[in-house]
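protien #1 (seq + structre)
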Amino acid sequence: MSPDRAARRTPEPSSSVEVVGEHSQFRLDLERIRFSPYFSRLSAVTQVIAQPGAGPLIHNRLTHSIKVTAVARAIAVGFADASSPAHALATEHGCDAVVVQAAASAHDLGHPPFGHLGERVLDRLARETLDLPDGFEGNAQSYRIIATLDVCAAAPHGLNLTSAVRAAVAKYPWTRFASPAPFADGGLPRGWRRSGESVEAAKFSAYDLDAADLAEARRGLAPMVQSLECSIMDTADDIAYSIHDVDDFYRAGLLSQGAVAREFRGWMEDSSALRELDDEALLQRSAPAGAALEALRRKLRRSDAWIADDDAFAAAVDVVADDLVDGLLATPFDGSIASERALSSFTNRWIGHLQTSVVPAPDGVARTGLVTLDRGAWHEVEILKFVHRHFILDRADIAMYQRGLSRVLTRAVKGLTAWATDEYDRHRVPQRLRELIEIATDGYAQLRRTRPEGVPVPESADLLRLGVGRGVVDYVASLSDDQALAVSEAIDGRPDRLWDIGQNL
């Protein structure tokens, strides 16, 4: 047993597990995550389409996490087979299927209400309104939950998970203010972006408050490189996301076969002509059918030259056009057994294909983890993700709805912050919010005492302000969609949904 992989921040009695050993320690971690109220909460958090508007069969964050877990486990178990192309990699780095399951179960714990929209709005509010330097990031919030906010009997804060599981949760294993490590290909890892002459971490897996915990969990791992178990979880997330979103949009009747077919056929029939257009022409409303796919091809060539290939792109367009556009979408979903069977067949076929297409990644490539999808499957996933991004997320009706939801979160954050800093009424702030503010304030005070390398140290005069800001964000991010609506309306003086707030207060 590797003591580093099974290490916990707080020692636990051996009675915590029936059989003392690395595998059973990891199983204890999995059980702690699955019994967490943060995990249960995901059943009431939007994936992409809110359930009230699309029906009960649409994925939420919990069903998505369960399916990511199933895909990730299948990949990890496959690596144990001596005939697998990744078997040697798994042997070298360690690949426990239970660690992978635990990481997959935990990877979305930090997602706030209203899906990715909520993440963007909370980040803007955290940085611009609350003046929190590292803002909000869903992956960092997930890590904060397992390391600090959730509870178990064995530690004062957090779930006291093993190093292997904590490292496997960290998809972007750095903080917002880290400096990127050099890679052999000179590139930047996914999650980093260039801004003029500088680079910044757009995605990261730990706030400054939890940076020391992340560093401890990743001791011995290469800088900025996911653990193998994390890389498997990340790949499984991509696979499930690309397939289950198509599933949802087809069920909800939001994918128009005519519109999707026009785009695909436009690119397949006129790709040579489309290549003659400049980038600006591809973005015009008058751009010909196929222009959006051509823009995707160019983006992949720019950002992922290590694997992007024009022939593989064209082949992926053909495959998706045949199976999705001319296959599944040709018959509208009507809830019948026949349509359920067609959808099930499509989903199972693609999941099976993609989870057996995971291979070791080339050495020294910044944009990938230790494993990746093979070239063909990688392009197919990019095409499938394009379908939901282009034909769903850019719809005017969804954009209007999202603008309304952004106001809900803005009211909640500003209203709770004002309450928590009200000299005359702050004693009536909900107990849970008060505790989260105390935890965050203590965390910032700890940063001043320890002054960890590479982490901004707050001024003593800012400790309470920062603690209030982070505590409010932690509180709002932990709400379900309905709770966020109820809190926002109640704090805005609208009593219609007062009793929907529930026990979060």
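ok now protien #2
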Amino acid sequence: MLEKINLDKSMTKQEYKEFIDGITPRLALLQRQCKEERIPIMVIFEGWSASGKGTLINKLILPLDPRGFKVLAISEETEADSFYPYLRKYWIETPAKGRIHIFDQSYYRGVTAKAINGTISQEELCNDYDDITEFERQLVDAGTVVIKFFLHISKKEQKKRFQRLEEKKATAWRVKKRDWKYNDQYDEIVPFFDEMIAQTDTDYAPWTIVEATDRRYATAKMLNTIVMRLQEQVEEVREKKRHKPVSEAHIGKESSRFMPGILNNVDLTKDYTKKEYQEKIKELQRKLAILHSELLRRRIPVILAFEGWDAAGKGGAIKRLTQPLDPRGYEVIPISAPNDEERSHHYLWRFYKAIPKAGHIAIFDRTWYGRVLVERVEGFCEKQEYKRAYNEINRMEELLTKEGCVLLKFWLHIDKAEQEKRFVARQEDPDKQWKITDEDWRNRSKWDQYEKAVDEMILRTSTGNAPWIIVEANSKYYARIKVLESVVKAIEEAIKRKK
């Protein structure tokens, strides 16, 4: 692929001046239009060392309003990065709606470096590229424009640029021993870049190969590509606005096949006596305290995700979980409606930010499943968005578990009569009145709609690597013990696998 590209393409100074004079006002206008239409943009620069990535980035930002973009220079993976899944830091750096993030190298760098150095198997390499294309697809599906450039120069040209850089004291530091090593291995490295491009060149995030021998030509091709892509996106967004379909009911006939479903078959009569409960919880909490130390020692991250009906006992179960834990090694993350910053990003963005580092426990009180529950039922997202979310969530959870994370998902289930009893008890107890709101009663009126959504959620997202655990929660004693038993068992199994 790269070997067949003509690297002799060039532009005269006059051609370049005429081109720049015409395109820079268009680019500045498109930045304003993308901000107005709330279009997030990622521009990625990859390529050979000394191919001119920094130069092209400088040419790109000259016409832009500096308040609307951010340039990210991606360094090699640090020790801190190694405590998290590989793509987490890139999720965190995705742009908000209306902003431009420009990457001087990206998530491709670490993967190709491992391939070139032979520290990754072919199967692992393909899996990593699959994770990357899925990451880009999710961003594009949510409205992000992903523009990717690979700057290509010849071995001879690269060597010449290294020599020029080394001749000047101010720039000699930029050339490392590894750069010369890779120049010597240029012909051996080409197939790795070819594979990267072939594996990750998609219709939603295509690669643009930039012939970068001539700086003027490279700049012109880069700017023209960006302007064309942004123009297309602005027109597409405006066209959709003009022909926005009438909203459909979010719980419709397509969900009826899930009822009567999973929740109807849950046995809510399960219970423990107070004595049984006290004996079991004491032993389970003792084990959990020991296991928590092992998690820290073996650097195993744990995510415990709690969903369930209002008043189902999530808070009580979480409290019993955390009592024996070292507070320095866990965090409880209560999830409420997204704030303005969170709404300006992909809905999974705020959850990637909260992923625990290796050895720590993150306990989510409500989760990313809000997209297919409350957002679906209350009409806060479009039908295609919550339908798409099932696969997006499955892929996120697959990524987490593949990286060694213990992920447990609990649905705390009570029946409608038990919920009413607990609501009334809260209203009558001055110390618990703060727990019950008008919104709780309003949500209760949509019980049937939520039940259908929960059944579909469980069926579509209970996977081999991250199955749902339905907790029979009419008995608080039984629910708390089941949660603790599930956590202890999962951590014990993870520690055995780590030995």
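DSSP finds 20 helices and ten strands in the chain.
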